[in-house]
Structures are given as structure tokens and as C-alpha cells.
């Protein structure tokens, strides 16, 4: 994030960039669903993804061009990830995981543009995504295995004495999944951007020595690009892992 | 577009470093629009983009498989052609050898026939020549006998006329000729 105009040199608020601003207020009384900057950037990310993908596939070349190669690369990357992690059966859920992956990737990368807004830096969105995955995956488990899915929590291989204890741990760890799943993504995106903002603030505060924080900001910006891609991948592959547990138990 | 800050109370919290992430009053709006955005993305992806990519990949896979198949077919044909070529070459060689052997046999036979004919002619001529030599020799022998007897008669007539006895002279000539090897 580039340095923003703040009141004073030392009065830098790294969290200011995450502020939700209402663009079109829409209060339904019981619930406020105003169109905010978060919604705007979510739609920009979606539009950019669609435009990119659409342009990439409209060539339809048997021998792909650059954009088509990228689109096909992402497609095959996600497809292989789903199949390798959760098996061939999971391929019918491939479109969902592909959508999740490209949405998070687009939001993360869009957030790297200065003055933009990072949709995935808000726990509201990541919790929503993680809970959707959690509920869907649990439903798939029950639909495929019926009540037998509960055996997932019962460690039949363990010694009889510790089974109840392990069962409690399994249940807790299962319900902690959406928490870690969402906070991992949201906190990564938030922390990186906050650090950039803080370092950016130092540039103004340190005068000539500000060159040092600029180097730091440059390095961390590069790191943030890696994190943006990596966190999208991590979110998608964890989804595959959870899906695998539901489909194949363990 | 109106860009008012979300809430006056929140703005104060932000000023003191509060986390906008934990302002739950904004969650419903964020989730609502994020869900719509994701749904739109999902619909567009599944309706047109993903099937297109999948079809392209499938097409490419098929084209490559077809190309490999036709390459294998062409290779097989080439190998067949080579085998046919080798077989034809072997047949031609065998034929040539057979023709050579036949020609050789014919030539040998003709040669043998010709030399047999020549031999026969040679022996016929030899026999003829011998016969003529013998005839000439016989003639010469009888001539010699006659000349010797005549000469002896004439000598005796000159030396002792009236003594000459024709049969005794002939016997003597014959004896002399026999001893000199002229007669048989």
C-alpha cells in the first residue's frame, strides 16, 4: 500500500485501509446490506476474472496463446489438486473449488494495487467462505455415508481406554476447522497490508533515512504477491483435504 | 456515489486503531454482496468458460492421440513396405540364380553334345584316314613285291638266262619283304 495522506507523520493508522465505506446505503431495517467498497472490489475481482478467462478461452486455439496457456494452466492446476488430494470422485465438485480459488486469488491480487481494497482481508468474507465449505463438506459426508460418517470421529484403531478422549479431540478439531480455515486467509491478508502501511508511514517519518523502509516495503510487497497466491492455494487445498475426509473418511 | 464513513462510533474506534474486521455491523452487507459476486462468478464459469477449457483440452488430447495413432500406422506401413521390398529382392535373387543355373546347364549340355559330335567326326575321320593309309600301304607293298620280283627276274635273266623260276623268285621276295618288315 502506498503512503496515504494522514493527519500527521506519526499518526499512521494501519487499519484505516480496511475501513468499510458505504457506497450505496441499503438498510432493510433488520439487516444492513449496503453496497460497500468491499462489495465493489468483490465485483471488480469477479469482473476481472471473467474478462480474463473469457478473453483467454475465446481464441479456442488448439495451440494455445499466452492467455489461453495461463487459463488452461490454472484449470489443470486446480483440477490436478482436486484429484490428487480428494480422488476422482471429488472431480464433480471441481467447479466449486475452482470458483473459490479464482475468487480468492483475484481478490488477493486486486488488493495489491495501491488504494484498492482487499476483500479477503475481512473475516466476514473469509468466515463466510470457510463456513460454506464446512457446511457443504459436512453435508456431503452425511449424504454419502449416512450416520456412518460419525465414525470419522471415533478412532477405532486407538486403545479402547483413550477412545472417548480422542473422540472429543476429533470433534473439537473438526469444529475448529472453519475457524482456522478463515482466520488463516483473513489474518494473512490483513497483516501483510498492515505491515506495508506501517513501513510506508516510516518513510515519511525518517526523512532521508526513509530509503531503508522503502527497501523494506519493496521486499515485503514482493513477499505479499507470493502470500496472495499462496493463501488462495492453501484455502483451496484445505477445502480439498476436508472434501477428501468427507468422501473417503480416513 | 456517497462515500460516507460507516458509522460515527466506528470512526472513533478506527482512529484509536480498532479493527474494522471486528465491526460486526458490516458483516451482513459484506457477506451478502460477496455471496452474490461469487454466485455470478460461479455461474459464468460453469456455464461457458470451464466447459470451453475442458473441450479445448479434450480436443487437444484427441488430436495428439490421433496424430500418434496415424504416426504408428505410417510406421507400420513403412515396415510392411520394407518387408515386401526385402521379399521381392530375395525372390529376384533366387530367380536370377535359377536362370543362371539353367543357362549353365544348357551351355554344358550343348558343349557336351558339340564335343561328342566333334569326337565322333574326329574318330570317323581317323578311321577313314587309317583305312586310306592301310590301302596305300597295301598298294605300296604289292608294288614293292612286284618291282622286286621283276627286278630279280631281270637280274637272273642277265646273269644266268633260263634259270629264272618265277615261283621261286616270288617266294624269295616274299621272304625278304617279310624279314625287312614291310610285309605282314
First and last CA, distance of chain A: 44 Å
Q: Give the number of helices of chain B.
A: 3
Number of helices of chain A: 6
Order of SSEs of chain A: EEHHHHHH
Report the average pLDDT across residues of chain B.
Answer: 85
Structural class of chain A comes to mainly alpha
- Oligomeric category: heterodimer
Main β-sheet, spatial strand arrangement of chain A:
1-2
How would you describe what is shown here?
The complex is a heterodimer of chains A (250) and B (184). With 250 residues, chain A is mainly α. Chain A has a domain at 31-122 and 187-248. In chain A, 66% of the residues lie in helices and 2% in strands. Chain A is built from six helices and two strands. Chain A has a two-stranded antiparallel ribbon with strand order 1-2. Chain A is globular. Chain A starts with 20 loop residues before the first strand and ends with a helix. Residues 1-9 of chain A have low confidence and may be disordered. By secondary structure, chain B is an all-alpha fold. Chain B has helices at residues 8-15, 27-159, 166-180, and one strand at 4-5. Mean pLDDT of chain B is 85; it is low at 1-16.
Can you give me a brief rundown of this structure?
The complex is a heterodimer of chains A (250) and B (184). Mean pLDDT of chain A is 89; it is low at 1-9. By secondary structure, chain A is mainly alpha-helical.
Spell out the key features of this protein.
heterodimer; A: 250 residues; mainly alpha; 6 helices; disordered N terminus; B: 184 residues; 3 helices; rod-shaped
Q: Topology, pairings included?
A:
The complex is a heterodimer of chains A (about 250) and B (about 180).
Chain A: E1 21-24, E2 35-36, H1 37-58, H2 66-86, H3 94-110, H4 123-145, H5 163-205, H6 211-248
Antiparallel strand pairs in A: 1-2
Helix pairs in contact in A: 1-2, 1-3, 2-3, 2-6, 3-6, 4-5, 4-6, 5-6
Chain B: E1 4-5, H1 8-15, H2 27-159, H3 166-180
Helix pairs in contact in B: 2-3
Amino acid at each position: 500500500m502506498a503512503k496515504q495522506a494522514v493527519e500527521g507523520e506519526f499518526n499512521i493508522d494501519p487499519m484505516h485501509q480496511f475501513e468499510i465505506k458505504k457506497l450505496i446505503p441499503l438498510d432493510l431495517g433488520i439487516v444492513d446490506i449496503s453496497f460497500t467498497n468491499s462489495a465493489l472490489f468483490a465485483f471488480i475481482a469477479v469482473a476481472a476474472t471473467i474478462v480474463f478467462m473469457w478473453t483467454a478461452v475465446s481464441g479456442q486455439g488448439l495451440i494455445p496463446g499466452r492467455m489461453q496457456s495461463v487459463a488452461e494452466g490454472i484449470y489443470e492446476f486446480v483440477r490436478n489438486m482436486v484429484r490428487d488430494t480428494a480422488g476422482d470422485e471429488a472431480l464433480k465438485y471441481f467447479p466449486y473449488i475452482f470458483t473459490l480459488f479464482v475468487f480468492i486469488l483475484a481478490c488477493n491480487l486486486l488488493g495489491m494495487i495501491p488504494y484498492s481494497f482487499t476483500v479477503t482481508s475481512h473475516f466476514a468474507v473469509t468466515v463466510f467462505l470457510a463456513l460454506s465449505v464446512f457446511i457443504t463438506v459436512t453435508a456431503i459426508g452425511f449424504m454419502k455415508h449416512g450416520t456412518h460418517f460419525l465414525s470419522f470421529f471415533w478412532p477405532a484403531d486407538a486403545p479402547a481406554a483413550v477412545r472417548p478422549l480422542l473422540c472429543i479431540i476429533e470433534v473439537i478439531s473438526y469444529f475448529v476447522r472453519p475457524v482456522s480455515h478463515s482466520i488463516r486467509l483473513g489474518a494473512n491478508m490483513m497483516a501483510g497490508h498492515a505491515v506495508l502501511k506501517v513501513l510506508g508511514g516510516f518513510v515519511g517519518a525518517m526523512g532521508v533515512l526513509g530509503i531503508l523502509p522503502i527497501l523494506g516495503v519493496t521486499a515485503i510487497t514482493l513477499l505479499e504477491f507470493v502470500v496472495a497466491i499462496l493463501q488462495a492455494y492453501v484455502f483451496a487445498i484445505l477445502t480439498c483435504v476436508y472434501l477428501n475426509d468427507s468422501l473417503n473418511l480416513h | 456515489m456517497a462515500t460516507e464513513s460507516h458509522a460515527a462510533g466506528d470512526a472513533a474506534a478506527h482512529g484509536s486503531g480498532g479493527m474494522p474486521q471486528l465491526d460486526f455491523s458490516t458483516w451482513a452487507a459484506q457477506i451478502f454482496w460477496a455471496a452474490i459476486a461469487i454466485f455470478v462468478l460461479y455461474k459464468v464459469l460453469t456455464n461457458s468458460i470451464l466447459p470451453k477449457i475442458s473441450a479445448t483440452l479434450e480436443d487437444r488430447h484427441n488430436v495428439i492421440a490421433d496424430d500418434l495413432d496415424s504416426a504408428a500406422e505410417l510406421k507400420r506401413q513403412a515396415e510392411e513396405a520394407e518387408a515386401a521390398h526385402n521379399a521381392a529382392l530375395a525372390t529376384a535373387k533366387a530367380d536370377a540364380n535359377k536362370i543362371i543355373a539353367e543357362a549353365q546347364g544348357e551351355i554344358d549340355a550343348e558343349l557336351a553334345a558339340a564335343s561328342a559330335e566333334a569326337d565322333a567326326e574326329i574318330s570317323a575321320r581317323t578311321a577313314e584316314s587309317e583305312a586310306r593309309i592301310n590301302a596305300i600301304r597295301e598298294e605300296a607293298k604289292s608294288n614293292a613285291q612286284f618291282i622286286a620280283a621283276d627286278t630279280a627276274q631281270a637280274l637272273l635273266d642277265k646273269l644266268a638266262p633260263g634259270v629264272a623260276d618265277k615261283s621261286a623268285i616270288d617266294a624269295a621276295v616274299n621272304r625278304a619283304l617279310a624279314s625287312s618288315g614291310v610285309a605282314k
